Amino acid sequence: MSLKLKKETVCLFLLLLVCSVSGRAQGFLRAEGKKIVNEKGENVLLRGIGLGGWMLQEGYMLRINKEAQQHRIRERFETLIGAEQTRQFYERWLSGHTRKVDIDSLKAWGFNSVRLPMHYNLYTLPVEKEPVAGQNTWLEKGFAMTDSLLSWCKANQIYLILDLHAAPGGQGNDLNISDRDPSKPSLWESKDNQQKTIALWKKLAERYANEPWIAGYDILNEPNWGFEDLANDKNGLKEQKNVPLKELMVAITKAIREVDQKHIVIIEGNGWGNNYNGILPPWDNNMVLSFHKYWAYNDQASAAHILKARDQYNIPVWIGETGENSNVWYTEAIRLFEKNNIGWAWWPLKKIGMNNPIQIRSNPDYDQVISYLNGQGKRPEESVALKGLMKLAQDIRLENAVVQRDVIDAMFRQPFSTQAIPFKANKITANTLLNAVDYDLGINGAAYFDKDTADYHVSTGKNTPGNRGHAYRNDGVDISKDSGPGYYVSSIEDGEWLQYTIDVAKKGLYNLKLNIASAGSGKVTLLLNGKPVGKSLQLQNTGGLEVFAPVELKGINLPAGRQRLRVLADQGGFNFSSLQLQREN
């Protein structure tokens, strides 16, 4: 071998070694006291998101609310478009929902971990379909999908948590989350289903035992079963012993440890992950407790039970699921979690709906499918249903979806900053129109002020939806869609306001027109950099709350450069679609 070739070989070896070391830089995560740490002993705060809707569809993510378990959704699609075309739809769904570009984006946005909700039927046959009773047929599809996801995570140095979301037979009476068929034995009513669950985890652990970018195994998502009093406590909220749940989780852990001593085992209590009665103390020295938190206050008291478990058992805790709320709630929750050194995984990354980082667009043909399946419309023609479903399968791809920048900002910047920043670059020239819904990005009280900001119904017992129009943005501001492609701010209450950061190209006098719809009430004050501008505007009846007309304030003196313009509702009861700034000649 020539000297030049030897040098090239050595350089290549060193390059591969560096790449290998960098890919394993933090090594396996482990539980150390109350913390999750890497191999250097450094605290690791997991900031993650769940890939709900990929391997396992829950009906609400598709806006289906009747018979919304995945197997029933699939059967009902088959009645509309046939078995073969339904198979093609699901192939497109599975190949398009989550790809490397999605994981690349998560890394760029600030996430350092991903939770994969697995459906067992992508990895093994159901018990009743096994050719030989008591044996396990392994399916390559699920393992190949997991391998691909892991490779994308490794490329981005993002941790992957494997989560068994749908166990054989289904682990609860909330049917949709585990795709349970109540006509067949559940996980808790079938030893065969339990043995298959144990075997699946052993197979997964054996396959991924030496993969440091897998953070851990979330062995059973949200069990919800009343073992002692099924008739009156079907979801296990009042369960005191949880004997079958603990026995199964201990058995799964034992099977994992036969082939894998390195990975964290994550356990969840009964009652959707929070009822740990009878389950603790932990039985493994590399274990994490997962709690799920939705629709409750985000004060320190709301985390008291989580912190109590952590302190009592000297074990790390992790919020394995949270979300499905407004930006205000997200910012509050992340402040709470991180103040207490609790990692988190949001739910979900994408769905039809706007309170997640990625919004999947619906389409008119699919809307007909939804209407029919929900019992609200006539059966669509096969061609219409097929077109709608295939368009939906195309639109789940990131490049065809809507990235909700306000949601991402609320998760990664707003918990740690009170600064409002522009939602859009508002360059004010001779004649500029700004959409009312494009107010600044930031926390409530800095970028806008709204009185109804989030859903706290678990704590209050009252429905407070935040954005009542459920459109365009996920703040507390109420936004409705108009009859065309646009949006407007609606349900404005006394004292609420919106702020717009503007860049004025040339100083001078400007006339301002607000496009307002009023049924006879409303009063507006404009503020520039915190100071009132001109007189307050008393609004007149425009003919209704969907009939917009301009209200003008003349002669506003705008300095050049960056300014903050606020529209304050001294008296609410009107809607607001746009504002126009026109420089006087």
- Percent of residues in helices: 25-40%
| Overall number of structural domains | 2
User: Any guess at the CATH architecture of the largest domain?
Assistant: Alpha-Beta Barrel
Amino- and carboxy-terminal Cα gap: 81 Å
Structure description:
This protein is of the alpha/beta class and 585 residues long. It has two domains: 30-54 and 108-346, Alpha-Beta Barrel (TIM Barrel); 418-583, Galactose-binding domain-like (Jelly Rolls, Sandwich). The protein has helices at 3-23, 70-81, 83-96, 100-109, 140-156, 175-178, 191-208, 243-257, 270-273, 304-313, 327-339, 364-373, 382-395, 405-412, 457-460; strands at residues 30-32, 35-37, 47-50, 113-119, 159-166, 214-218, 264-268, 287-293, 317-323, 343-347, 350-351, 358-359, 402-403, 427-428, 431-435, 448-449, 479-481, 487-489, 497-504, 508-518, 523-528, 531-538, 549-558, 561-571, 574-583. The strands form six sheets. It has an eight-stranded parallel beta barrel with strand order 3-4-5-6-7-8-9-10. Helix 2 (70-81) crosses helix 3 (83-96), helix 4 (100-109) runs parallel beside helix 5 and helix 12 packs across helix 13 (382-395). It is globular, with a radius of gyration of 27 Å. The N and C termini lie far apart (81 Å). Residues 1-24 have low confidence and may be disordered.
